[in-house]
Amino acid sequence: MKIGILGTGSVAQALAGGCAAAGHSVTLGSRHPESRTDLVYPVSGLEETARNAEVIVNATPGASSKELLDQIDAAVFSGKLLIDVANAATSSYELIYPGSSLGEKLQEMLPEANVVKTMNTCAGKIFINPSSLEPTSIFVSGNDASAKNQATTLLKDLGWPEDSIIDLGGISTAKGPEHYFVMWACLTKAMGTTALNVRVVR
User: Fold this and answer.
1) How far is the C-alpha of 46 from the C-alpha of 49, rounded, in Å?
2) Burial of 159 (0-12, 13-18, 19+ CB in 10 A)
3) Average pLDDT by consecutive 10-residue portion of the chain (202 residues)?
4) Looking only at Cα atoms, what is the longest distance across the chain?
5) Which residues form the Pyrroline-5-carboxylate reductase catalytic N-terminal domain (predicted)?
6) Which CATH number is 136's domain given?
7) What's the total number of domains in the chain?
């Protein structure tokens, strides 16, 4: 697949590496692509990256994701899978959308896109290499079944076993894993590492 990852930070770079290793074509999207000559993967402007992608990933800082994606022509997202991996929180880990989630806000803003929330409950080094831990869980939320299947296929390409992937339901359920980010921040501070994830025990 041709995957366009909006963002050039550590999460975007980790995901780019994982997707490329799985055989996908990857481009990173930046507001200032000319300044990112330090990156291993091709870098284009945000809109160009989204336009040329079959699958778009929002890996921009969650606090500014809506503002950044609003700079892109909404028609570019029409009919495409938009995977949201960002967490909308302040630097002190307070939720920006305490009654909702960034995934829901992006779906409202881009009604013609198929938004799927996933890969936001663990660090990038974990979601591209899940076997680095004991078996853990990862979640998907979205309104479109086909889009969730496509996102699930990508998760499997990254090494997630099928029984580790939990479909929570529609995009309204995205608030669950996004609100968990507060707990994740507490855990990483308490345990002194980001090499952790949550596991659902049945």
Assistant:
1) 5
2) middle
3) 96 97 97 91 96 98 96 97 97 95 98 98 96 97 98 98 98 97 96 97 93
4) 49
5) 2-87
6) 3.40.50.720
7) 1
Of 115, 155, 116, the closest CA to residue 138 belongs to: 155
The length of the chain is 202
From the list 173, 177, 155, 175, the residue with the least C-alpha distance to 164 is 155
In a domain, 59, yes or no: yes
Structure tokens at 40: 């291993």
The stretches of 36-194 forming alpha helices (DSSP H) are 46-52, 65-69, 102-109, 124-127, 145-157, 175-191
Structure tokens at 145: 């079944």
Q: Which pair of structure tokens corresponds to residue 192?
A: 């002194």
Spatial CB neighbours of 90, under 8 Å, sequence gap ≥ 6? 63, 96
